[in-house]
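User: Reviewer 2 asked us to show a designed sequence for the structure in our supplementary figure. I'm pasting the structure tokens here. Could you produce the per-position amino acids so we can include them in the response letter?
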């Protein structure tokens, strides 16, 4: 029986038995089951004065009870086989004695023991003792929390808590319970550690007031604070602190004295290790304190002074850059290892209060062991509360080597190197670094080419440098893009040996690519204007591609030949004795190089026009002037076409020159690498076509060391005046020398007279002016002729043989005509020149405008023989 009244004391009398009692608390996700429990109570009615609760007896719980704490619907902590008694004695004493086993996740079960007693008398100062003990792996590793409460005055209680050997599992249990009443506990995660402490709680009117931690001893603590993304650990913490939870601003009531050893602090942008310090906090303010710590491998001190109106802390650290890998992202760490591993770094910075957060201002000094000169960077950045977020900052330095401060960030894989001395200014935040710089004696180089620039800026020198170079580094994607202008620089192509000078360009460097969207340069006297792109993204060392497009080029043919010979000296047109002005057509020129170790391949397309050209023949008495043509060249397709050919053919020495017009629709090489082509060229005077050569070209093999080109003439289209040759053969050696030539033709002198007269006026023949005049005065001519001309390049000998019959020139008639002999260089040998009974033989050497007659013999029939020598 239970009795609850307003005018009498509450009491109980009787025995209560519970079987299969199950209970659940949704707020704490707590489920329990008690198979059997007995409550036996007796009243103490005669007690005077009466207590609020006058009862004696016992609550006995079977030791097969269970209690389960869930977390997000899954078992988290379980107490099995627990049970015990709760006793109420006549001397106003209550006692608790519970035992069981705890299971935490997949850990082995641990023995649990809860003991306690309390004074419940209304007229006495209330006292309470409660002891929780959870067995550890060893007897001295039991986790224990003991509470002792005593009342010093009405509505004011003190609770003393002795905490021993509390580890991560016990803290997780406490935290999981506390989260149900205050979600802020979710922001803390204890990763590791052991805590021993003596804590005193002051309770006023059932509210928590002051908390005093009089004795803290923590070992190997590791904690993470999620809102700030801050992790810290401490090898050992000793000390005491006090906090008043009844105050409006709790932080301003904190007093603490702590000794921290071997600490570690991980912030979003920085990590501190090897922390050793004695910290004093008064009314929430850190007093002047020196913290010994390490940032990566840099050792130093942090002077903290919370009492200062402006400067919060001052940092002094130094050490080798090689010891910094813990601080930097892995990509940046590779850069530092390559360029700064031997450098000694000194960091000096002040942290001051800002308008909205904190401001860090300082210097970085980098000293290389091989040099006493220190590279200095001034910097400043802001930290924004509450998470110490890097908001924005800047840095700057003078006389800094680009190979260390710029190049490794642009070329992380060492595709190229950028060297020189420069002025650098940059801005940064948590996502990006932007750098502006100027430099002198700049060199952009790799194993294949080298760019030299005296100064990035084209402006005159002034006190304020013109920072025209830029670099942007994405810290999230670890990508870099850079821009720099080149003024009056040089470009040296190492594979070909070509030097480009007066280079003016805009250079964009992005990851594994270099873009030059606008390039002006000279090479071998040739002017270029176009774009260049370089790509190193292909796998393999020394493998990259260069793409060049030129929409403007101006130069001489010989200059172009010399330039192209650096890439492929076997190209046939490099040996042609041709000169003229060359410029690109609207489609321009395109070159694509694929480089690999020790060699490269070339693809190209060129659309060009040549004007004011000239072509010299080996004899020196034949040349082409005022030559113009269009060129279409495709290296990959082995295609070369010369079209719209026009020019003037000059035949004869300078004082006896005849002019002819050269025209041709095209000379098309369908496979220029193998010297395969078709051609059609004509020569005419002002009245009619004198000469036309049409046919095909193909390679022919004579030996393994030289290239020979065989001309197959179309005899139906090819002609000399009105004459079509019966045989015409031509073989060139390397396009610049005649290896062999043969011409056979039949003609009537009357048909050929006008062409012969015009050709004789060139002076190509060795005849005197009087004889030439007589030839040109001929009015009528007749006769049939057979002509054979042969030339052998090995000995440089031209042989000729002309046979005629029924020859008539005006009034002179000859039944038989014979003309044969040889010519080598300037020497003519006439074996026989015969008109019926008159025959002539001669050995003549032409020296400039003088004919030297070594021998001249004339015979008329059998009656007259004449021999002469001399010069005229």
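Assistant: Here is a per-position design you can include in the supplement:
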């Amino acid at each position: 029986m239970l009795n609850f009244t307003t005018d009498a004391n509450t009491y109980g009398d009787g025995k209560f038995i519970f079987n299969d009692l199950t209970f659940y608390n949704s707020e704490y996700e707590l489920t329990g089951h008690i198979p059997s429990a007995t409550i036996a109570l007796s009243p103490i009615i005669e007690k005077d004065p009466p207590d609020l609760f006058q009862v004696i007896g016992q609550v006995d719980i079977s030791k097969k009870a269970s209690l389960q704490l869930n977390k997000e619907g899954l078992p988290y902590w379980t107490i099995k086989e627990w049970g015990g008694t709760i006793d109420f004695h006549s001397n106003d004493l209550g006692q608790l004695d519970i035992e069981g086993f705890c299971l935490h996740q997949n850990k082995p079960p641990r023995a649990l023991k809860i003991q306690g007693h309390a004074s419940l008398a209304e007229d006495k100062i209330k006292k309470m003792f409660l002891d929780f003990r959870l067995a550890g792996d060893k007897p001295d590793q039991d986790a224990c929390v003991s509470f002792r409460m005593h009342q010093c005055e009405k509505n004011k209680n003190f609770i003393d808590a002795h905490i021993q050997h509390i580890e991560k599992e016990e803290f997780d249990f406490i935290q999981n319970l506390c989260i149900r009443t205050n979600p802020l506990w979710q922001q803390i995660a204890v990763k590791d550690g052991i805590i021993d402490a003596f804590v005193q709680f002051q309770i006023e009117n059932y509210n928590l007031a002051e908390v005093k931690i009089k004795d803290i001893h923590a070992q190997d603590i590791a904690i993470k604070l999620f809102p700030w993304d801050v992790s810290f650990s401490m090898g050992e913490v000793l000390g005491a602190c006090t906090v008043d939870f009844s105050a409006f601003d709790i932080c301003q009531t904190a007093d603490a004295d702590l000794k921290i050893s071997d600490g570690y602090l991980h912030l979003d942008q920085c990590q501190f290790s090897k922390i050793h310090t004695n910290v004093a906090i008064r009314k929430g303010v850190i007093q002047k304190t020196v913290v010994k710590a390490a940032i990566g491998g840099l050792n130093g001190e942090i002077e903290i002074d919370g009492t200062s109106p402006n400067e919060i802390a001052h940092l002094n650290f130094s050490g080798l850059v090689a010891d910094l890998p813990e601080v930097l992202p892995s990509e940046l760490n590779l850069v530092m290892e390559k360029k700064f591993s031997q450098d000694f770094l000194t960091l000096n910075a002040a942290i001051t209060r800002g308008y909205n957060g904190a401001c860090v201002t300082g210097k970085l000094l980098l000293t290389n062991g091989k040099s006493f000169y220190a590279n200095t960077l001034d910097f400043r950045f802001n930290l924004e509360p509450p998470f110490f977020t890097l908001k924005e900052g800047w840095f700057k330095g003078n006389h800094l080597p680009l190979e260390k401060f710029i190049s490794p960030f642009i070329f992380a894989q060492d595709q190229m190197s950028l060297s020189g001395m420069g002025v650098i200014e940059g801005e940064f935040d948590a996502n990006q670094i932007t750098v502006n710089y100027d430099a002198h004696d700049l060199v952009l180089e790799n194993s294949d080419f080298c760019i030299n620039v005296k100064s990035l800026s084209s402006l005159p020198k002034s006190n304020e440098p013109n920072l025209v170079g830029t670099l942007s580094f994405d810290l999230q994607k670890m990508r870099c893009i850079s821009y720099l202008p080149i003024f009056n620089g040089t470009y040296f192509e190492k594979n070909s040996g070509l030097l480009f000078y007066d280079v003016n360009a805009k250079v964009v460097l992005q990851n594994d690519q270099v873009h030059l969207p606008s390039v002006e340069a000279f090479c071998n006297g040739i002017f270029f204007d176009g774009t260049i792109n370089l790509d190193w993204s292909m796998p393999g060392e020394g493998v990259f591609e260069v793409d060049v497009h030129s929409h403007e080029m101006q130069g001489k043919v010989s200059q172009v030949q010399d330039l192209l010979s650096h890439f492929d000296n076997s190209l046939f047109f490099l040996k042609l004795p041709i000169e003229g002005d060359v410029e690109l057509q609207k489609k321009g020129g395109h070159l694509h190089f694929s480089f690999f170790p020790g060699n490269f391949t070339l693809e190209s397309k060129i659309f060009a026009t040549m004007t004011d050209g000239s072509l010299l023949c080996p004899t020196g008495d034949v040349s082409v002037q005022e030559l113009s043509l269009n060129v279409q060249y495709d290296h990959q397709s082995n295609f070369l076409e010369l079209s719209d050919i026009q020019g003037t053919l000059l035949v004869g020495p300078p004082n006896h020159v005849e002019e002819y017009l050269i025209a041709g629709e095209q000379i098309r090489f369908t496979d220029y690498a193998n010297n395969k082509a078709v051609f059609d060229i004509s020569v005419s005077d002002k009245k009619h076509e004198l000469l036309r050569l049409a046919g095909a070209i193909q390679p022919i093999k004579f030996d393994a060391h030289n290239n020979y080109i065989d001309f197959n003439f179309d005899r139906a289209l090819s002609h000399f005046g009105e004459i079509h040759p019966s045989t015409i053969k031509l073989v060139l050696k390397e396009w610049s020398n005649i290896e062999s030539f043969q011409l056979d033709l039949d003609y009537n002198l009357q048909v050929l007279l006008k062409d012969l007269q015009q050709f004789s006026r060139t002076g190509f023949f060795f005849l005197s002016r009087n004889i030439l005049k007589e030839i040109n005065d001929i009015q009528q001519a007749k006769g049939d002729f057979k002509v054979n001309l042969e030339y052998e390049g090995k000995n440089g000998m031209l042989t000729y043989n002309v046979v005629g019959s029924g020859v008539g020139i005006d009034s002179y008639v000859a039944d038989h005509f014979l003309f044969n002999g040889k010519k080598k260089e300037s020497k003519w040998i006439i074996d026989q020149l015969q008109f019926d009974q008159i025959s002539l033989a001669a050995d003549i050497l032409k020296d400039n405008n003088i004919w030297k007659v070594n021998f001249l013999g004339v015979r008329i029939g059998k009656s007259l023989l004449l021999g002469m020598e001399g010069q005229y």
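For the response letter, you might also mention the following. The CA atoms of residues 147 and 675 lie 104 Å apart. The chain has a mean pLDDT of 83.
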